[in-house]
Structures are given as C-alpha cells and as structure tokens.
Amino acid sequence: MAAFLALDLGTEGARAAVYGDQGALLGSGAEAYPTRFPRPGWAEQDPDDWWRASVSAARQALAAAGGPPIEGVAVATTASTVAVLDGRGRPLRPALLWMDGRAGEESELTARTGHPVLRYAGGSDAVEWLVPKAMWLARHEPETYRAAARIVEAVDYMVWRLTGRWAGSRMNAVCKSNYDPRGAGFPHDLYEQLGVADLAAKLPDEIVPVGDPVGPLAEPARAELGVTGTATVVSGGIDAHLSLLAIGGAQEGHVSIVCGTSNAFVTEIAEPVFPPTVWGPYPDALRTGRWLVEGGQVSAGSVLAWAGEKLIGRPRAEIGGLIAAATRVPPVEHGLIVLDYFMGNRTPLRDPRLRGAVLGLTLASTPEQVYRAAVEGVAYGTRQVVDSFTDGGVAVSEIFLSGGIQHNELWLQTTADVLGRPVHLVTGDNLTLRACSVLAATGSGRHASLAEAAAEYAPKVRTVEPVAAHAAAYQAGYAGYREATAATTGISHRLSGGRHER
Length: 502
Known about the structure:
Elements: E1 4-9, E2 13-19, E3 25-32, E4 44-45, H1 47-65, E5 72-77, E6 82-85, E7 95-96, H2 104-111, H3 130-140, H4 142-147, E8 150-153, H5 154-163, E9 167-169, H6 170-176, H7 188-193, H8 199-202, E10 206-208, E11 213-216, H9 219-225, E12 232-238, H10 239-242, E13 254-259, E14 263-269, E15 279-283, E16 291-297, H11 301-311, H12 319-327, E17 337-339, E18 357-359, H13 367-391, E19 398-403, H14 409-419, E20 423-426, H15 431-443, H16 450-456, E21 461-464, H17 471-495
Parallel strand pairs: 1-5, 5-12, 9-10, 13-19, 19-20
Antiparallel strand pairs: 1-2, 2-3, 4-7, 6-8, 11-12, 13-14, 14-16, 15-16, 17-18, 20-21
Helix pairs in contact: 2-3, 11-13, 12-13, 13-14, 13-17, 15-16
C-alpha cells in the first residue's frame, strides 16, 4: 500500500499525517511552537522551532501509522511567514509571521508604483506579504538585510531542510512575491523601484509548480524524521490555498473557506477578471492554465473568542453554554450590530484602519445577545467577501467550509443563513494535510494529475441548509452592517491614528 507524509506549519504549531491509498488517514501527530509579540502589531517565530516541531510531529504520525515506507512528502505553511537566513541557512533574526503588520508604509509604497505585474494583486502588495517585509528589513535593519543570503517563505525553508535545494513554491512566488510565471519571472525592475534591487538574489534559486517533484528526501532529513522508502519531496504551498485540492478538486465555482482565527477564501477560475475587491487573479498559482482568486477576513473566530472570553468574561470551558444560550436568541431582534474589523479589513474593503464595534447596547442587553450579535457580525463579513466575488465576476456555485467553525454550530448555521445558500462542512479532517497528501501522491507518480488525485482523496462533507424563516431578518441585518461600516469608517480611521501600527 502506498503511503505519503504530509506536513503543515500552522500559526501555533506543526502537524503531520500519514495517508494511504484513496486518502485513508493512517496516523497523525502535532507539536507546538511559540510566537513572540515584541511590539504591538509585530509577530515573530524561530525557524529552528518549525523544524524541531515538524520532526516531532512526523515521528508521531509515522509511529501511529506503523512505520510504512513513504513514497512522497509535501509541506504547506502559513504565508507570508518570512525567514531571514545566512549562507548556511541559519536564522539571522526571528522570522516575520504572516500576521506581522509592521510593513504598512512599505505596502502603501507598492501601490504607488503602478507596475503592471501588480495587476495580478489588485494593484498593491498587502502588508503581510514577503516584498513589503523585505523592504521593511532593508529600511529598518539594513545590516541584517545586507547579511541575508536568503529571504524566503516558510514553505521554501522547509523544502530546503528536506532536500538541501532552494526550490520555491510557484504558488507562494506568484501570490506573495509578484512572480510572473507568464512573463519575466521575478520583477527585478519593481524590486529596484522599491529599494530592494537585490531581493531576487535572496529568493529561491528555482521556482517549482505545485505538485511537481523537487527531489529525494535528503539523508540528514531522512534520519531525523525516521522516514524509509523513496520519499520524493513535492512542491507545496500556502495552507489555505491548497485546501481547494482537498474538497474533491478545484472546480469552477467551488469556493473553499477555511474558518478559524481568520477566514481565508479561495477559488480557481478559467478566465481572469480584475475586480479591485479581491486578491488576484494569480496566474498558474495552483494549476497551470488557471487563475487563483483569494479573499479574506482578518478577524473571524478571534472575534468570537474575544466576545466570549474577554468581553463577556466566560472561561473557555463555559463557552459551550454561552453558545447554547445565544442559539435560543432570535436572530437580529436583539437590536445589536457587531462590526468584525478588529484587525482591519482584508477584502473587499482593503482597509487596515477599520476597527471593530458593538453598536446598539442598552442596560437590558444580555451576554447571549452580545455573543449572538458577534456571530452574526462575522457571518456578515463572510457574506461581504462572497458578494465581492460574485459582483466582480467570480463564479460561486458551491461553498465548502472547514476549520474551527465545525466546533461552533451557531456560527456554522448563521453563516448558511446569512449567505442564504447551502454550505458543505468538511468534518473531522485537516484539509491542509489532506491537500498535501494529494500533492505527494501526484508528485511521486502515483497519480497522473492533481485533478485525478484530488477526486480520489475527496473528504466526507455535511450539507447545512439555510433556515428560510430567518432570511428576511438577516437581509435587514446585513444591510445594517453595511450601513454601520460606512458610518463608522471616519471615526475608525481617527481612532487608529491614521496610520498602521509600528
């Protein structure tokens, strides 16, 4: 029986799984690592921690699976989580985590260049992406920038640890470093305009399409991980973006929403459209000949955690009771509106200076009403992104949800109700790990194409239908949410200081 090793570096730790034929899960493991927040808006991790945790998680998964020979290995990570390394691959400073927002001014500079490659990114690079982070390093830590032999995505660092080759994921290069696979590759002239003329020399030496083999697992990594078998390492990519491969394939109109601390929306389209409200379309990012479209809510499950644990003050062990009480509250009738912009808005408004709000409070407002309003606010934010897709010409026929939302039935049902359409919940599985098994099975030669492997590895889903009786209330509630967003934008900008956190 074939076996494949999947690795996933998330925000809080590394996860690993061993999959067999047709996507059967044979064993899994996990290991945490710390995040440090040296200043407001900053977030850093140690790349050595990524590798240590990955080794531990992989050994757990292999032991649970009975130690089968591994045919293929694939890895996915958060993006852009950026490592800064010397010529031997050792960290020169902590890596800048995806959520690190220190490069706000640098992000704004990209928008002013008017470079044609930025058409694929909606006109600018987001504050989280690799290029603004590299610009920040060059401006604020010039000695470190000059000493850096490599400034790379976490996934590229992991592939180097696995193979000894600096082979970058085409997905990350296109989506986060302005790489043009249909043109000049890395845009040297743009980097020069942005004050990082030598950046391309610090990026991976080669760019490999998602699902293509990079090379055999190197002997040092093989020994540390405890892997036997041929173990071909396959090019991976961004955790949420790869989820399209784990819902049965990236079919036209299928949108994957990974719902957790934040919400990530991804889909593929056959022909490009260029609305200013989405990220992309990215050419050939996932599959050659297709275009990837991305949207996102910066704050989603984090808003619900804040409302339940910090505002209302319930211990995490009691949140289930709060959710049950909030479920009994009729939708919208509580008279409250929660705006989900606690860390700004990623799409469709692209405004990092928006702020969250709870509107309509009275002395009669109850904790369960406030929590219900927070759930509705997050769902309204989800609808706002989905509407931006459809309004911009991006087809949305079926929606697949995964992640932490499966543990909150109120959030799940409210999302279906606010969207006014059925949603398919992927339960009991990690879509990123499953997607990596699709990549490993394809790149090792077990399947002829990503589409073939994705179809065979499709997970089980549960369809959640919207409650028709709630439609009118949520239509009015969503209109109020949009109106409240417009009404509070000015004060949000003033309260945020008119600039990004630094």
